[in-house]
Amino acid sequence: ASNDGLLRIGLKRLKRDPDNRVAAQLDSGSGEALRASIRKFNL
Amino acid sequence: DSADADIVALKNYLDAQYYGEIGLGTPPQKFTVIFDTGSSNLWVPSAKCYFSIACYFHAKYRSSLSKTYQKNGKSASIQYGSGSITGFFSIDNVKVGNLVVKNQEFIETTSEPGVTFLVAKFDGILGLGFQEISVGNAKPVWYNMVEQGLVKEPVFSFWLNRKADEEEGGELVFGGIDTKHFKGKHVYVPVTRKGYWQFDMGDVLIGGKPTGYCRGGCSAIADSGTSLLAGPSSVIAMINHAIGASGVVSQECKAVVQQYGQNIIDLLLAQVQPKKICSQIGLCTFDGNQGVSIVIESVVDEKNDKSSSGLGEAMCSACEMAVVWMQNQLMQNQTQERILNYANELCDRMPSPMGESAVDCGGLSSMPKVSFTIGGKVFDLSPEEYILKVGEGAQAQCISGFTGLDVPPPRGPLWILGDIFMGRYHTIFDYGNQRVGFAEAA
Q1: How far is A27 from chain B, CA to nearest CA, in Å?
Q2: Which of residues 23-42 of A touch B (CB under 8 A)?
Q3: Which of A21, A27, A35 sits opposite B121 (nearest CB)?
Q4: What residue spans of chain A are helical by DSSP H?
Q5: How far does the CA of residue B266 sit from the closest CA of chain A (Å)?
Q6: Calpha distance A30→B354 (Å, rounded)
Q7: Could you check whether the bond before residue B27 is cis, i.e. omega within 30 degrees of 0?
Q8: Distance in angstroms (rounded) separating the CA atoms of residues B209 and B163
Q9: Following DSSP, what letter does each residue of B274-340 receive, concatenated?
Q10: DSSP state of B32
C-alpha cells in the first residue's frame, strides 16, 4: 500500500526460454495445456 | 463421490505467466499464486496432502500453525484438464500486500494428481472472478477486501510488463489504478455475463481489414489466468493463413468449397441473408438465428441398420465458415476465382482445437497486425505481441498466440483474451460499475 491508498502487488513473470514450463508446454505439441486452460469456463 | 462437493472446471495453469505472493494465516504462511480473473476461488496445497507428489514440491498450509484458523471442512473439487484437485474448505486471514483480509474461505487441496502442478512455479490460485462461479459459493478474496473496507474504490487493475528482460513482471493494483502504467483514456465496456469478466466485442481485423465474423457481435472474457488468445476457428484460420501458421486440413471444408463454393458465391451475390445460405443449399437447417446441422443417416448394410454420422455437423459448420470467408472476400471486391482459391487455402489452415500453431520466426516483419474492436475502438496487436518466441538465434521457435475455440450461441461466439492482450492493454476490472476498461499499457 502506498500514500495514494492503492494496494500494489508486484507480479513475477515466467521467462520465455526453452527451459521454462511455458515453453515446454507450448513446445510439447500435445496442446493439452491449452485445452485444459479453457475448461475452467465450462464451455 | 461426495454429495456436498462442488465441482467447477479449471485450467492447467502452466501456460499462465504472471504470479505473485500472498500470506495465509497468523503468522502468515507464504504462497505463490496466480491472480486469475477467470476463476473465483482461492486454493493452496494443504499439509494434509500426503499422496500427491506435487504437494511435496510446493508450500503447504498448516492450519495448526495459525492462530486465526477456523475449521469448515466442507469438501471441494476443482476440475482442470484431465484430472481434478480435491480438498476441503477452511477459513483464515489472508495477507495481500500489507493488507489483511479476515475470515477468508479458501480450499486446502489434499490431492493434486498428475504432473500439471508438480512442475508449476506457483503453489495455488487466487481467483478474481465473481462469486457466481465460485466453487461452494465461497466469497472471493476481492469481495471480502471491498466489504471489509480495505480498498478505497471497488476496482482492481492489471499491468503486465511485456519487456521480458526487465525484472518487474507486472503489477496488480487493488482499489484503483496506477497512472504511470497506461497512456490515454480507458475504453470501458459493460460486463454482460456476471460470473466472468465477460463483455461484448465487435469485429476482428487482420491487417486493418475486417474479417466479418464478429460484425454481428461476439463475446470476450478478459482472463489474466490464460496466456493466449482463443477464438472461433473460422477467424483463427484466416489469421493462420495471413501469418503463415501451420494448421490442420479439413476435408469437410474442402468438400464444401469444391461442391458448394460457387453456389455460396451466387447466393451471396443474390443478397440472400448469409445466415440462411447453408440451410438453403441443404447443409444446415435454419433455426432463426444460425444454421443447425442436419444429421445425415446412412444405410450401412442390407439389414437396414442405420447410423448417424457426424458428417452433417462438420459440413454445416464448414459451410458457415466458408460463407464468412467468401462474404469477406466479396466485400474486398475479389474475383470469384480468387475467392474460391482463398477459401480452399483456408481449409488447410484450420486450427487444431485449442492446439498451438508454429510460424516462421523470420517472417515476423511481414505479418499483419491483428485487431479487436471493443467499445467501438480498435485495439491492435503487432506480430511481436501475438507471436511467442521460444529460445534465441537459430534455435528460436515461434508459436502463434492464437488458438481455436468454438462456442455456439447463445454463449458464443466467444474470445478469451489472455495475457497476450492484457500485456499490451492495461486492464481495469471495475467491480462497482460492472465494467472492464482497456487502455494502452505504458
Answers
A1: 9
A2: 23-27, 29, 31-42
A3: A21
A4: 21-28, 32-39
A5: 35
A6: 10
A7: yes
A8: 28
A9: HHHHHHHTTSEEE-SSSEEEPPEEEE-STT--EEEETHHHHHHHHHHHHHHHHHHHHHTT--HHHHH
A10: E
Nearest CA among A1, A39, A4, A12 for reference residue B79: A39
Q: What number of other Cβ atoms are within 10 A of residue B228's Cβ?
A: 28
| Cell numbers found for residue B231 | 477464438
pLDDT tens-place string over residues B186-222:
999 999 998 899 999 999 999 999 999 998 899 999 9
Q: How confident is the model at residue A40 (pLDDT cuts 50, 70, 90)?
A: low
User: Is B203 among the catalytic positions?
Assistant: no
Which amino acid is it at B40?
A: S
CA quadruple B338, B342, B344, B348: dihedral positive or negative?
positive
ipTM of the shown complex: 0.71
Cβ neighbour number for residue B442 with a 10 Å cutoff: 12
Q: What CA–CA distance (Å, rounded) separates B401 from B162?
A: 14
CB atoms inside a 10 Å sphere around CB B96 = 24
Radius of gyration of chain B (CA): 24
Would you state the pLDDT for residue B4?
A: 37
Model confidence at A24, in pLDDT bands (50, 70, 90)?
A: very low
B223 is catalytic: yes
Q: Taking each helix axis from N to C terminus, what angle separates B251-269 and B311-331, rounded to the nearest 10 degrees?
A: 50
- Edge-first strand order for the sheet with B218-222 is B198-201, B218-222, B414-417, B229-231, B402-404
> Would you call the peptide bond into B154 cis, given omega within 30 degrees of 0 as the criterion?
no
- Write down the catalytic residue from B6, B92, B223, B419: B223
Angle at B167 between CA B163 and CA B173, to 5 degrees: 85
- According to the model, what pLDDT value does residue B225 have? 84
Partners of B395 on chain A (C-beta within 8 Å) are 18
**For the sheet containing B204-206, what is the strand order?**
B209-210, B204-206, B370-374, B377-381
Instruction: Count Cβ atoms within 10 A of the Cβ of residue B337 and give its class: 0-12 exposed, 13-18 middle, 19 or more buried.
Output: exposed
CA distance B138 to B152: 23
Chosen for mutation from A28, A34, A35 (greatest number of chain B CBs closer than 10 Å) is: A34
pLDDT for res B19:
83
| Spacing of C-alpha B49 from chain mean position | 30
Low-confidence residues of chain B: pLDDT under 50: 1-16, 296-310
